[in-house]
Amino acid sequence: MYDALVIGGGPAGLQAALTLGRMHRTVALVDSGRYRNGTVEHAHNFLTHDGRAPEELRRLAREDLAEYDTVELRETTVQSVREEGDGFVAETDGGPIEARTVVLATGLRDDLADIPGLEETWGKEVAACPFCHGHELAGRVIGLVGDGPHVPMMTQMLSPIGSEVVHFGDGEVTKVERTGDGVLVHRAAADPVAVAGLFLHPSFAQSAPFAEQLGLEMLPSGCVRIDVLGQTSRPRVFAAGDLAHVEQLPMPMASVLLAAAAGLVAGSSVVRFLAAEAVDSAGPSEAP
């Protein structure tokens, strides 16, 4: 039985496994090969890695993990997780995995609107995060889609970057067409508008069913409720990355750096939990 099962091979899961490995805890890291930022060509706003491809970040992280004998990487898919005895059993395409604790780092899935061209441009010319994708549009026209309360704030955030911020209401965009230097935004009742990049906020959902299978408490955002140490509502189950956040926040902030930091916190919390469990089982020590 492993000390920890980490499900998810993005920045949160990779960092959690590294933190556990450095403390010589046995870890099974399961990576399905599916990532929320799988269409993104360059990651930004990450000190010393600004502009590096997410695929390259994952490769470098795996090289780091290879130095730790107690960390085992499994490239397979977890189908289900259940509590059994003093631990958990994960059923995977490669067979069952038993562990004393679980770290969920499976992330979220963006549910894009059914607009022609949107899926092909998502994570490239069309994105959600101005911190990750805004600077590269400097001095050019930027498009912003939506009618929610976030729009005035996003407009002010993007205004110092672009030469102009053009707003498109919900339902106004009928097609997104890639051009040589941006996208052409087609509209239902007006001429198309050329922009260098387009920002919108799609709805999202859990990318895996494990929070539901384990009966974890959820937040109104659809994310797993955790405390500041990454502990979920179920003992021995921790979560890291954008699938979870503390209840003081309205939603997670999608960021490679924050996901990695959350993985460190969750991994450290597992180490602390296992150490405390060992202390409790040993009983009070006798005074010399």
From TrEMBL:
Keywords: Flavoprotein, Oxidoreductase. Pfam families: Pyr_redox_2. The keyword Oxidoreductase applies. GO terms for molecular function: thioredoxin-disulfide reductase (NADPH) activity. It comes from the Bacteria. It catalyses: [thioredoxin]-dithiol + NADP(+) = [thioredoxin]-disulfide + NADPH + H(+). Residues 2-136 form the FAD/NAD(P)-binding domain. Gene3D superfamilies: FAD/NAD(P)-binding domain (3.50.50.60). PANTHER family: THIOREDOXIN REDUCTASE 1-RELATED-RELATED (PTHR48105). This is NAD(P)/FAD-dependent oxidoreductase. It comes from Aeromicrobium phoceense.
